[in-house]
Write a structure and sequence with these properties.
Length: about 45
């Protein structure tokens, strides 16, 4: 951790980075779905 600029990541760090990027992608997708569902149900209550 705490890589200096220009240093390469080792295999474990690269795997963790890929995992975290995938997790961020999944969470953003879930957030978007919840946002749309919230808007839908808000319309239903009017």
């Amino acid at each position: 951790m705490g890589q200096k600029s220009g240093e390469r990541l080792d295999a474990d760090e690269r795997a963790e980075l890929n995992h975290l990027r995938q997790e961020v992608k999944t969470l953003r997708m879930k957030k978007e779905i919840l946002k749309k569902a919230s808007a839908f149900f808000a319309q239903e209550m009017r």
